[in-house]
Amino acid sequence: MEAPGSRSNTNTDQIVDVRSVVEAVSADDSSDAPLYKVESLCMRCGQNGTTSFLFTVIPNFRKILLSAFECPHCNERNNEVQFAGELQPKGCTYRLEVPSGDPKMLNRQVVKSEFATIKIPELDFEIPPESQRGSLSTVEGILLRAVDELQGLQEERKRVDPHTAEAIDQFLLKLRACATGDSSFTFVLDDPSGNSFIENLFAPSPDPSLSIKFYERTPEQQSVLGYVVDSSQTGHAHDVASTNPIGPDQERQRVPHGSIGAAAGHRAIAQSNTEEISEALFRYSAPEEVMTFPSTCGTCTAKCETRMFVTHIPYFQQVIVMASTCDACGYRNSELKPGGRIPDKGKKITLCVKNVKDLSRDVIKSDTASVKIPELELELGSGTLGGLVTTIEGLIAKICESLERVHGFSFGDSHDQNKKSKWLNFTASLNKLLSLEEPFTLILDDALANSFIAPVTDDMKDDHQLMFEEYERSWEQNEELGLNDIDTSSADAAYITQEMAATDKTEV
Predict the structure, then answer these.
(1) Is 436 exposed, middle or buried (0-12, 13-18, 19+ CB in 10 A)?
(2) Directed axis angle between helix 162-179 and helix 139-151, to 10°?
(3) Are 384 and 214 contacting, i.e. CB atoms less than 8 angstroms apart?
């Protein structure tokens, strides 16, 4: 059978292995990507079937590699979707509350990567990554496929273990009730790669039934994704110090400001960071002291150096800048962390953007800050964009990129015209913010008060467009940040004892 888009079925057009297929489709950047076919073994009947590969792009989402297998002998069919792009910086967890009697909720489109796990807590049911590898389906389709797979071996189970087969029959009744909308349930999609997705029916506005959380991957999850992880991080530690001892002078080297600070320090940090971040940081103050210490490259495990310095941003607080560069593989990494203690209160920053100068204001957005633009009814939860050092204009551009990447089905063929026009109008409204056709309000709400917008005046009180407001964190916010479990009573008692001892010595 001739593949669509191919001129002839000659020997030169045949792809003999999957590696060649992937290399061929990955090299083809055109929109009319060809369809490749490979003869492969059917796992049901043992005869040869055909696997078709198509490299395509979901508009405003990601590049994917679609594969579909069909056996002409036993009519076995299956399909799989694999992501051809990069892994996301953080994992994600989608939580969808599905009420009974609402077919639209079951018709939500779902992208499940090969690393994602699906859970239904009410049924204590879990679909592991190996069960349904990368797929493009709906909530209903995923549940019905799970029903079919469980039902497939029931006849054999009834002969071998009737008790277990009867229990599975009872469970299938509950699972079918969820798939048909007769029963309410919670659909949880957990993906450490960050490449899974559940459609938001109210995009770009928040969906009351859908919540998204981003999290840092554990060393075990990093290992599953293919990253090189130190064995000591995954619980299989071995003594490295005996074979490669590190002297006390190598643990941390303090370099005077005169030798590596100023111009040399500027150049060193710039080599390990983007130009925008380095310019924004050094606009305030140069590092008084740069500390370098040996570390290991997270990509190739070669030895490299990490540079760190503490600097103070006026009207804000101390921040810690860490930057590493690997000379072996060229990997670069930079982090900006807040310094000092955890503030007692959260902070809400409100800026009224009116002119071009406001778009050039420096912004530090931490990974615990949420972003709101009331004029567009836009709200991004904490962790959506991660930590950023940018400008107001850069932040709006990042929001546009993030929304276009996350809401991947906004321009798909299956999307109805009303939702498509709604998304186009919203995108046009975001572009109007950058052109300043109308003033707008930007709100950064940070429970840890680690975000900042720079004033345009020497005295912050003279900047009437910028307002800072402190507030008491709620119990839920402290719980999410892990502050409710912190017990400082022992440290407080030690400090009190130390202060009393110092006071007694002074009196004597």
Answers:
(1) middle
(2) 160
(3) yes
Provide the pLDDT for residue 11. 37
Instruction: Determine contact, residues 73/45, Cβ cutoff 8 Å.
Output: yes
Which residues are bridge partners to 82 per DSSP?
65
The count of other CB atoms within 10 Å of the CB of residue 147 is 17
Half-sphere exposure of 411 (CA within 13 A, CB side): 13
State the pLDDT at residue 255. 38
The number of residues making up the chain comes to 508
Helix axes 262-271, 275-282, angle to 10 degrees: 150
Q: Give 448-487 as a 3 state SS string.
A: CCCCEECCCCCCHHHCCCEEEEEECCCHHHHHHHCCCCCC
Tokens at 295, concatenated: 């570390």
Q: What pLDDT is recorded for position 288?
A: 55
Where would I find the beta strands (DSSP E) of 261-360? 290-296, 303-312, 318-325, 332-338, 346-353
346 has which bridge partners?
A: 471
39 contacts: CB under 8 Å, gap ≥ 6: 48, 49, 50, 51
From the first residue on, what is the mean pLDDT of each consecutive set of 10 residues in the chain (508 residues)? Answer: 39 42 47 74 89 72 76 86 72 91 87 89 89 80 89 84 88 91 92 86 80 86 75 47 41 37 42 46 53 81 84 74 83 74 87 89 87 88 77 87 65 63 80 86 90 83 88 86 75 76 70
Instruction: Give the span between the Cα atoms of 157 and 163, in whole angstroms.
Output: 9
Determine contact, residues 345/473, Cβ cutoff 8 Å: yes
| Angle separating helix axes 417-435 and 392-406, nearest 10 degrees | 170
